[in-house]
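Re: that chain you flagged

S.,

Sorry for the slow reply, it's been a week of failed gels. I finally had a moment to sit down with the sequence you sent. For the record, here it is as I used it:
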Amino acid sequence: MMDENKVNTVVEEDSNEKLKEVNKDLLVRLRRIEGQVKGIERMVEGNGCCRDILVQVSAVKAAMNKVGVIMFKNYANKCFTEDEKCIPVEKLDEIISTLLMFTK
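Prediction finished late last night. Pasting the structure tokens below so you have them in one place:
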């Protein structure tokens, strides 16, 4: 049977790995968005079709919303579950899914 210190260490290591994965995912998303924005710049400079530009702007907005949702979810999980008066995971999941629905 593991003692409490070992359990806490395992949980912290697992949490750190998840944080690294989330950060990596966010950076990949942000770089993709940066590429999309540069593409929009080129379209504008080249007098591209307004409709096509608006489609790309909409895609960037949606991608940024997704980044925001991931950040919010990470914040909520970290802040609300580490507190001694933490919110039950089921309620937290409900809050997050409601936010997701709202941002679509």
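What I noticed first: The domain at 4-103 is CATH 1.20.58.1000 (Methane Monooxygenase Hydroxylase; Chain G, domain 1).

Talk soon,
D.
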